[in-house]
Amino acid sequence: MKGHPHPLLRAAIVGAYVVVFYGALPASLWVAGAGLDRLVGWSWPAWPWAWGLLIPAGLLHLLAVSTLWLRGGSAPITALPPPRFTRAGLYGLVRHPIYFTYNLLLPPCGLLLGSPGLAVVVALAFAPCWMVYATVEERFLVRRFGDPYRAYQRRVGLLPGLFRRR
């Protein structure tokens, strides 16, 4: 989106993003995990100790979001891309730390909810989904930031230390 959209349009885009990314998507993943549990007959009790995994993953996620906000100059919303390219913090370890840390939240959520389907199967299946989405998103990032982004792709992987572009 070129220029600055009208403030009401911007608010609607931000609202829609929050509803989808932090409402509909986690609900869909939880439903998929619970459905898989029922289908296969899996069951285990909720594991309260999983808070010890969820809290650090959540803090990493907040760090990734806040880094893009502070260093990139905008919220992490594809339709409202940040004006500045950042390699700071987690962005120096993984190209899409928001997606990566979102994925890290799934296993402890599944453990807390007593859902092996969410903790294991959905969490593993979600990784290639966000990687495909991130790869498509990177076409826009290359157009927007050019050679500096191409160099970044060669240096930093989609996963920490893995899947670098040569």
Could you explain the architecture of this structure?
This protein is mainly α and 166 residues long. The protein has one domain. The protein has helices at residues 7-40, 51-72, 97-113, 116-145, 147-155. The model has no long low-confidence stretch (mean pLDDT 92).
Summarize the structure.
Helices cover 67% and strands 0% of the residues.
- Number of domain modules: 1
Give the overall form: globular
Cα end-to-end separation: 30 Å
| Pattern of helices and strands | HHHHH
The average pLDDT score comes to 92
Radius of gyration: 17 Å
In terms of DSSP E residues, the strand content is: under 5%
User: What count of helical segments does DSSP give?
Assistant: 5
Structural class: mainly alpha
Overall helicity: 55-70%
Unreliable runs: none
Main sheet specs? none
Entry keywords:
166 residues; mainly alpha
Architecture blueprint of SSEs:
Layout: H1 7-40, H2 51-72, H3 97-113, H4 116-145, H5 147-155
Helix pairs in contact: 1-4, 2-3, 3-4
